[in-house]
TrEMBL record:
UniProt domain 4Fe-4S Mo/W bis-MGD-type: residue ranges: 54-110
Keyword field: 4Fe-4S, Iron, Iron-sulfur, Metal-binding, Molybdenum, Oxidoreductase, Signal
UniProt-listed InterPro entries: Arr_molybdopterin_subunit, Asp_de-COase-like_dom_sf, MopB_CT_Tetrathionate, MoPterin_dinucl-bd_dom, Mopterin_OxRdtase, Mopterin_OxRdtase_4Fe-4S_dom, Prok_Mopterin_Oxidored, TAT_signal
Protein name as it appears in the record: Dehydrogenase
Organism listed in the record: Paraferrimonas sedimenticola
Cited PANTHER family: TETRATHIONATE REDUCTASE SUBUNIT A, TRIMETHYLAMINE-N-OXIDE REDUCTASE
One Gene Ontology term of the molecular function aspect: oxidoreductase activity
Protein family: Belongs to the prokaryotic molybdopterin-containing oxidoreductase family.
Cofactor: Mo-bis(molybdopterin guanine dinucleotide)
């Protein structure tokens, strides 16, 4: 039987009555049958009409936050292959395994093909939305009406814009439009992403951002949870360089789970979850006692005699720092007590091993780099873990050093669109002044992004705020490229919250769990193949700006989320008498080449990218990197590269309060004291309100605080360890068959299964064997999956990939679309907790569980 016949038969065999939504026709399972490959083939012209010649066209992958510059091979209007953009000085043609899944996503037969309107007014987990197709004009009309109704009653603050993944043309829809409509509520996903990671770097060396790691020149890598050949940032580059790195450097990975990187490392340290800071602090202690710190960066005792002795305070005037500040204060306040024996008592890692690590790092200094991942820092104590780990980069001088780590190079972009304030009327000005819906900046939620109380978003708390109608209720929501009902913790909170919102419009490629609580679905053009955008990335000493552009025949009646949608909405609002956004668009966002406004939505999308990137090609960017002759060259290459990062660039001029690398963070002290002052309490009262246990000045140095644990240890005797699957495009690839067919790319995982990896020691106690169906129960929920006995997880811990458990993300991702999940969503069992200093959601460390046979 031919392949096609077989597929047709299976398709018929699997056809059922229509599904919950009535939109996706009812293929269940997706385990044996794969409609996707057929759909891709269907999209190409019939075989004898194909030209068999194509072109490599540039774009950017957003499968993860590496944001690699890509080329796609397009033949007859269809994309058929993906590779790295050879012009990239970060990764060249190198790539990661998940790049290919983009093809299955853009040609996913389950994509939304037209706007859809909910006809069932009742919202809930078991309510079928009963979506029916409508036109774009009707859709925009309805959304505009809802927004205008809020403005008419002077309650424009009850509008909210939710942003998930994005490109650098987002400012118009995200910030400027929201402002002109009159709401303070532009909510990004950043604090369910990795904000706690930035706390160490920002409050110690002034970089609110991620670092790039000089892996080609390093001699020692210590990773706290980071798995750079599978996850993290610059996976394509690190994967291509890692073999050489392993030859020339010692690599030590600290992770309760044997990650892909740990499996190749010289040493794997399966730490108890939540205890990373104790290890980092004990290493720092040894480095000082043994005189291993990097003196050209940190300085030395004036007479060269080391006085750091365990438990003994040091006179600060005896030490002269060079590029750092507060080393002796830190020692006296906390570090002097964090001996290797103390470290062993908390982490179980032998003191001798801790001493060995410090000694090796001292020898390799300054070609030392200490990485942190979400796993170590997106915890209730995350800010302090981030600081403790980053402090090691200071002690061993890796900061901005050859073989160390440094911030992303500057890419001159107009990321901010022109200020829309002059277009705000009285309604908008009043609305914009309301408290933000996520309660950021309240006493118990400082969210100190860039030194400001309430400077950062508290994404996951939006659900709590809506459920409590505190500070008010949201009535109209526009959300794009996000799925917080799946990606946020304690998912039930999001289901309840969205059920309370009167009108939600979701701009999405696929119906997702978030869509199931929405009223209007607006089909999005796929970001990698059908959309104008621009992204920046950094690695290998360079930064890049690379474009996304519509390279294939647009599938379906879709629109680009960040450009066409706001353009059409502004036009509709103007037709109905509110013309501020429309005037703004036509007066402020002009083609940098002609000075003219766009003539239609599609042209506007391109103009937005031209506007943002003009400093790279319309001006002379050679001060920062490549010199381009103009827009055409940029579009043809698809990428601009920066010059290499100059080593020691920031030495002597860190953007901290003292201008130094702050072991005692004057910057955090200032920011947190201002937060306490704002609430008219003492800093200690504020720290206590935020659930931190070390008060006084200790709060401003890296310090150890026992992890919070959720639940009773007898009832829930195991810890849960979440991880990213290697083929996760964040939450977006779950409807791609390859995601399941190659699941064993994750060490310990099995193809076509959702497994919880349990150490055989624990499994035997529980009487479990491979393949047993199990239920994982936490204090907030339960999920079902399959037991997998595996030595690659620390006893007492259970590791499971995030990504499966979709009950509404297409026919492959769900057992029965709209009803039953395939596998379990980890977020159903993760209790909603925060690292309050950063406003980040805790996804790790606090999750106690038990396992039952299902
Ligand atoms: N494959 C893949 N890569 C991705 C993405 C993706 O979806 N898929 N998404 C991208 C995005 S959005 C982001 S923000 C980055 C995030 O990249 P990272 O910041 O590197 O974070 P994760 O990979 O989420 O971190 C989870 C890791 O921490 C480990 N871990 C869990 N608990 C602990 C603990 O208590 N201590 C220690 N030391 N480790 C622990 C887990 O085993 C896992 O290896 O990744 C990007 N890269
Ligand atoms: N347990 C656990 N939870 C996590 C993580 C984890 O590692 N473990 N990772 C966290 C991290 S780092 C992040 S960044 C967040 C991500 O969480 P979100 O920001 O919510 O993003 P996604 O889950 O990727 O969902 C994106 C949604 O956008 C839609 N979509 C897909 N492609 C497109 C497109 O091209 N255009 C538009 N407009 N829409 C599209 C689909 O509906 C998809 O469900 O999840 C966080 N949640
Ligand atoms: S590393 Fe991430 S951004 Fe780069 S190709 Fe892979 S999935 Fe895409
Ligand atoms: Mo993220």
């Amino acid at each position: 039987m031919s392949q096609n016949k077989l597929f047709q038969m299976r398709r018929r065999g699997f056809l059922k009555a229509t599904t919950a939504s009535g939109v996706l026709s009812g293929l269940t399972g997706g385990f044996a049958f794969n409609p996707m490959m057929e759909a891709i083939a269907d999209e190409l012209p019939k075989v004898d009409l194909r030209t068999n010649t194509g072109t490599w066209l540039p774009t950017t992958c957003q499968g993860c936050t590496s944001w690699c510059a890509k080329q796609i091979y397009v033949m007859d209007g269809r994309a058929i292959k993906v590779r790295g953009n050879p012009h990239s000085k970060i990764h060249n043609t190198a790539s990661c395994p998940r790049q290919h899944l983009g093809l299955q996503m853009v040609y996913d037969p389950d994509r939304i093909k037209t706007p859809l309107l909910r006809t069932n007014p009742k919202k809930g987990r078991n309510e079928d939305p009963k979506f029916k197709p409508i036109s774009w004009d009707q859709a925009m009309d309805l959304l505009a009406e809802k927004i205008l109704a809020l403005r008419a009653k002077n309650e424009s603050h009850k509008y909210a814009l939710l942003r998930g993944r994005y490109s650098h043309v987002n400012d118009l829809l995200y910030k400027q439009m929201t402002g002109m409509i009159g709401s303070p509520n532009n909510i990004s996903h950043s604090s369910i992403c990795a904000e706690a990671h930035k706390m160490g770097p920002y409050y110690m060396d002034g970089n609110w951002g991620y670092n790039q790691y000089d892996v080609k020149n390093t001699k020692y890598i210590l990773s706290f949870g980071a798995d750079p050949i599978a996850s993290n940032r610059q996976v394509s580059f690190y994967s291509s360089a890692w073999g050489d790195t392993l030859d020339q450097a010692k690599v030590v990975v600290v992770d309760p789970r044997l990650s892909a990187t740990a499996a190749k490392a010289h040493k794997w340290i399966p730490i108890e979850t939540g205890q990373d800071s104790a290890l980092a602090l004990a290493i720092a202690h040894v480095a000082l006692v043994k005189g291993l710190w990097h003196k050209p960066f940190v300085g030395d005792f004036k007479d060269g005699k080391n006085r750091f002795m365990a438990g003994k305070a040091v006179e600060s005037t005896q030490f002269e720092e060079i590029h750092s500040y507060g080393l002796v204060d830190w020692w006296n306040l906390a570090l002097k007590d964090y001996t290797p024996e103390w470290g062993e008592s908390i982490t179980g890692i032998p003191a001798a091993d801790i001493v060995e690590m410090a000694t090796d790092m001292g020898k390799a200094a300054p070609a030392v780099q200490v990485w942190t991942a979400r796993g170590a820092v997106m915890q209730t104590r995350g800010t302090y873990t981030s600081m403790a780990c980053h402090a090691l980069n200071g002690i061993f001088g890796g900061i901005d050093s050859k073989g160390g780590l440094f911030p992303y190079n500057k890419v001159p972009l107009n990321k901010s669109f022109p200020d829309s304030k002059p277009y705000m009327d009285a309604v908008a000005k009043k609305g914009k002044k309301a408290e933000k819906i996520d309660q950021r900046g309240r006493l118990a939620m400082p969210a100190l992004k860039k030194g400001k109380s309430g400077g950062g978003v508290v994404t996951d708390n939006v659900a709590n705020a809506i459920n409590a109608a505190d500070p008010y209720n949201i009535e109209v929501m526009l959300a794009y490229f996000n799925n917080f009902v799946f990606a946020g913790t304690e998912t039930k909170r999001w289901e309840d919250a969205l059920s309370k919102v009167d009108f939600i419009a979701h701009v999405t490629t696929n119906i997702s769990e978030f869509s199931m609580f929405s009223d209007l679905l607006l089909p999005a053009s796929h970001h990698m193949f059908e959309k104008w955008g621009v992204l920046t990335a950094s690695g290998n000493g360079h930064a890049t700006a690379s474009i996304q552009k519509p390279n294939i025949k647009r599938m379906h009646d879709t629109r680009q989320d960040e450009t066409e949608v706001p353009y059409m909405l502004a036009k509709k609002l103007a037709e109905k008498g509110f013309d501020a956004p429309w005037r703004y668009i036509n007066e402020q966002i002009l083609d940098p080449e002609t000075g003219k406004p766009a003539k239609d939505a599609e042209e506007f999308a391109e103009i937005c990218v031209k506007y943002v990137t003009a400093p790279l090609w319309n001006e002379d960017a050679s001060k920062y990197g490549d010199k381009l002759s103009g827009w055409d060259e940029f579009v043809e290459k698809g990428i601009w590269n920066s010059s290499p990062y100059p080593y020691q660039k920031r030495w002597g001029k860190f953007k901290t309060k003292t201008g130094k690398f702050e072991f005692y963070s004057k910057s955090l002290e200032k920011a947190f004291t201002a937060h306490a002052d704002k609430h008219q309490v003492t800093p200690d009262e504020a720290l206590t309100a935020c659930n931190y246990t070390n008060l006084g000045k200790v709060a401003f140095v890296p310090n150890y605080q026992a992890p919070e644990r959720d639940g009773d240890a007898n009832e829930f005797p195991l810890y849960f360890v979440d991880q990213k699957a290697r083929l996760n495009h964040e939450g977006r690839s779950a409807n791609s068959p390859w995601y399941y067919e190659f699941k064993d790319l994750d060490p310990g995982d099995d193809n076509n299964a959702d497994v919880a990896k349990i150490n055989p020691v624990d499994a035997h106690k529980l009487g479990l064997k491979d393949g047993d169906p199990i239920r994982i129960v936490s204090t907030v929920g339960a999920i079902e999956c399959t037991a997998k006995l595996w030595e690659g997880v620390r006893p007492g811990h259970v590791a499971k990939c995030f990504g499966q458990g979709h009950w509404a993300y297409g026919r492959v991702a769900s057992k029965e679309f709209g009803k039953t999940a395939r596998g379990g969503n980890n977020n159903d069992i993760i209790p909603n907790r925060y690292d309050r200093l950063s406003g980040s959601t805790a996804f790790y460390g606090h999750i106690r569980i038990r396992i039952e046979k299902a």
